[in-house]
Design goal:
The protein is an alpha+beta fold. The chain has helices at about 25-40, 60-70, 85-100, 115-120, 145-150, 155-170, 175-195, 210, 240-245, 280-295, 310-320, 345-360, 450-460; strands at about 5-15, 50, 75-80, 105-115, 215-220, 220, 230-240, 255-265, 300-305, 365-370, 375-385, 395-400, 410-420, 425-435, 440-445, 465-470, 475-479. A hairpin with a 2-residue loop joins strand 16 and strand 17 (about 475-479). Helix 1 packs across helix 2, helix 6 packs across helix 11 (about 310-320) and helix 10 packs across helix 11.
């Protein structure tokens, strides 16, 4: 084996349920020390520190502050942008640097204290944590929402993903009740995994019947079938070179290898997707990751597909040609709705959990990540057997966007939609993505009439002809 071969040798997770809990820096330090202890590596010895962006607090210099706590002087440090793919991007970059001989050890960590932030909001208390950024930097996304999305109040994932879900439902000719029943079925199985996971935020096994009911958030999604964002959780992994692993006397059975990974992109604007119902990007990322690993889906002993919303699982399963009820299950943690969805960090939890499973049972496993509005995709194949080709962050596929028309008056056809509900559970507005009659182009529209909102939830609206008119900077639809 090449002495520069990177391997994962340490992992740690933490879930804090007492309120108020610690700040993110405390959580980073805890999991960093635990992951280093698991690796048998002094934290001060770390060559690289990579941190996933935390939504909970804006620090002035996050990697430096953690290094200070650990007594480390890393040669390399990085702080990611917002994205559910950020953990894998950091892991992949760290592995590449180790393989190139630039480093021999790297920590990747993430932490959120959003449950504590919620606690302080409810108590009407101001959060006072350490080392605040002054001035506050811009929010850490790669790019802001499209002006047309902002004009139609379409920027929250709890609204964008249901639009994709309704398009997917229509493409499969599924009745609304059938979609909800199927979703409740496979998500009930996920909750069973979370119930047995000591690190899960919601250790409750929900029955399908329980998941078919509840308060709608972005119809047709209920509050119990979407990612649970407000958690206090942290996770970390440590990677080292095979040479350093040998010097540390880390047993071979404690080493897990990144056999191959890949990254791909769909369009940034949901309405601009070539297909709202499917993702070529997921398929290409999976194909590349498996090819680099020299393995296939049938070789995987365990899977964790990113599960912020059901349509992410459905489109991934379609792309992978995987049954939603595959006996291996779709998650090793319980998924973002039940194990917890700590903003951009989840893939660190799924990777740490998978590493533990592979250490115990040997074999290969797959972890996927999703960023933004089903925009960014990572697929990573992990194994207890070295081999394969690492891969890199160069996208193996970039979708070509469909043109968007910000303002439009005239007939159109619904391509996907959702009905946004308020905290009281009442429907507030519908948000539509529509196909325009002249060529491949789309537009957004809103609906506020109570009778039309009720109609939209009572039958399949995708494929329906509607008429748009402009009001200010937005399109309004009726039928």
């Amino acid at each position: 084996m090449d002495p520069r071969t990177p391997c994962l040798v340490g992992a740690a997770q933490l879930t804090v349920r007492t309120q108020p809990g610690p700040e993110p820096l405390d959580l980073w330090e805890h999991v960093a020390r635990e992951a280093a202890r698991d690796a048998g590596l002094p934290p001060s010895r770390l060559d690289s520190i990579g941190l996933v962006y935390t939504d909970s607090w804006q620090y002035d210099a996050p990697p430096y502050r953690l290094a200070e706590r650990l007594g480390a002087a890393p040669r390399h440090s990085v702080y990611s942008n917002v994205s559910g793919t950020a953990p894998q991007m950091l892991i992949g970059a760290a592995a590449a640097r180790i393989a190139a001989g630039e480093l021999d050890s790297a920590l990747v960590a993430g932490a959120e204290a959003l449950a504590t932030r919620r606690h302080f909001r409810k108590m009407r208390e101001h959060v006072v944590w350490s080392h605040p950024a002054d001035p506050k930097p811009p929010y850490g996304w790669d790019r802001p929402p499209h002006p047309a999305e902002l004009a139609h109040e379409l920027f929250l994932p709890v609204h964008t993903y249901p639009i994709l879900e309704t398009a997917h439902r229509f493409s499969r000719n599924m009745a609304i009740s059938r979609e909800m029943s199927e979703r409740a079925g496979f998500m009930s199985l996920m909750s069973e995994v979370a119930a047995a996971n000591p690190h899960a935020w919601r250790r409750v096994a929900f029955s399908p019947e329980e998941l078919e009911t509840g308060r709608f958030v972005g119809w047709p999604y209920t509050s119990n079938t979407v990612a649970t964002l407000e958690v206090d959780q942290a996770a970390a992994v440590v990677l080292v070179s095979a040479e350093l692993a040998d010097r540390l006397a880390i047993p071979l059975e404690r080493r897990v290898y990144l056999r191959g990974w890949a990254y791909a992109e769909d369009t940034w604007e949901v309405a601009a997707r070539p297909s709202l119902a499917s993702s070529t990007a997921i398929a290409r990322a999976a194909e590349a990751a498996f090819a680099r690993a020299g393995l296939g889906l049938d070789d995987m002993a365990a899977l964790d597909l990113y599960s912020c919303f059901a349509v992410a699982l459905r489109q991934a399963c379609d792309a992978l040609k995987l049954d939603l009820f595959d006996p291996r299950g779709l998650t090793v943690t319980g998924g973002l709705p039940y194990a917890g969805g700590p903003a951009s960090d989840y893939v660190l939890h799924s990777t740490a959990t998978l590493a533990g499973l592979l250490r115990a049972q040997r074999g290969h496993g797959l972890v996927t990540g999703v960023g933004m509005h089903l925009t960014k995709h990572t697929c990573a194949v992990w194994s207890t057997e070295p081999g394969g080709v690492l891969g890199d962050a160069a996208p193996v596929h970039t979708a070509t966007p469909v043109p968007l028309q910000p303002l439009y008056e005239g007939p159109a056809t619904v391509a996907g939609y959702t009905v946004a509900h308020g905290r009281d559970g009442a429907p507030e507005r519908a948000i539509l993505v529509v196909d325009l009659p002249d060529g491949p182009a789309r537009a957004h529209a809103v609906v506020r009439q109570a009778d039309l909102l009720a109609d939209a939830e009572s039958r399949e609206l995708v494929g329906t002809r509607v008429r748009l008119r402009t009001e200010g900077q937005a399109n309004v639809a009726d039928w």
